[in-house]
Amino acid sequence: MKEEYNNLKSLIEKNQKIKLTNLELNDDNLILSSSKEDLLFNIDFLKRSSDFKFRQLVDILGVDYPQREIRFEIIYLLLSHEKNLRISIKICVSENDLVPSLTDIFPSANWQEREVFDMYGIKFSNHPDLRRILTDYEFEGYPLRKDFPLTGHKEVRYDSELQKVVYEPVKLAQDFRDFDFESPWEGSEYINKEQLKIEKEK
């Protein structure tokens, strides 16, 4: 399989039409980096070209890097059944960027883009129905962003008297607890300190 991916990498590098900013092969994972502006052309070309035939969009993923100036990555996973090969196409976008929708090229991108929007707040231009898909309509924030609070912003419960779901401010039954996840073989820090005291007294 390694040889097939090396051949695919060489074929993409030789092709003058694909517009990439970077191309890397890690084991059997071929990652193409594209600008946001060239995304639609690149994916459409990889789908329709007889040399590549990447005719299935497997998934669209979001990744949040809050420490970066350009905060988000969107990764598109494509599959070629004829060649039995997969590739990843990666773009970097800022928080307020509009990403072109793939729904005209791959109709299945509809729900996948809605999921990325729902989880990260990344918006897609020319999407036919860009609204939340996993969270509730009154949900606040984007739960897969690294700065989203662990408690969320609202508490949801069913009120039997009102016979409907109600939203309330978050009430924690107890404070957050700190757990010691150190190796039991090395011992916790406080145990090590106690052992050092005993050794000094000897």
Describe this protein with a few key phrases.
single chain; 202 residues; alpha/beta; Beta Polymerase, domain 2; two-stranded parallel sheet; 24% helix; flat
Architecture overview:
- The strands form three sheets. This protein has a five-stranded mixed sheet with strand order 1-2-5-4-3. A two-stranded parallel ribbon has the order 6-7.
- The relative contact order is 0.10.
- Helices cover 24% and strands 27% of the residues.
- It has two domains: 1-134, NADH:ubiquinone oxidoreductase Nqo5 subunit (Beta Polymerase, domain 2), CATH 3.30.460; 138-202, no CATH class.
- It is an alpha/beta fold and 202 residues long.
- It is flat, with a radius of gyration of 24 Å.
- Strand 4 (72-80) and strand 5 form a beta hairpin.
In short:
This protein is α/β, with parallel strands linked by helices and 202 residues long. The chain folds into 2 domains: 1-134, Beta Polymerase, domain 2, CATH 3.30.460.80; 138-202, no CATH class.
* Coarse structural class: alpha/beta
* Strand and helix order: HEEHEEEEHEEEH
> Which CATH C-level class of the largest domain is it?
Alpha Beta
What is the topology, as strand order, of the major beta sheet?
1-2-5-4-3
Looking at CATH, the homologous superfamily of the largest domain is NADH:ubiquinone oxidoreductase Nqo5 subunit
Poorly predicted ranges (pLDDT <50, ≥5 residues)?
A: none
Main sheet characteristics: 5 strands, mixed
Principal-axis shape = flat
The percent of residues in helical segments reads 10-25%
- What is the name of the CATH architecture of the largest domain? 2-Layer Sandwich
Using only C-alpha atoms, the radius of gyration works out to 24 Å
Percentage of residues in strands: 25-35%
Mean pLDDT: 89
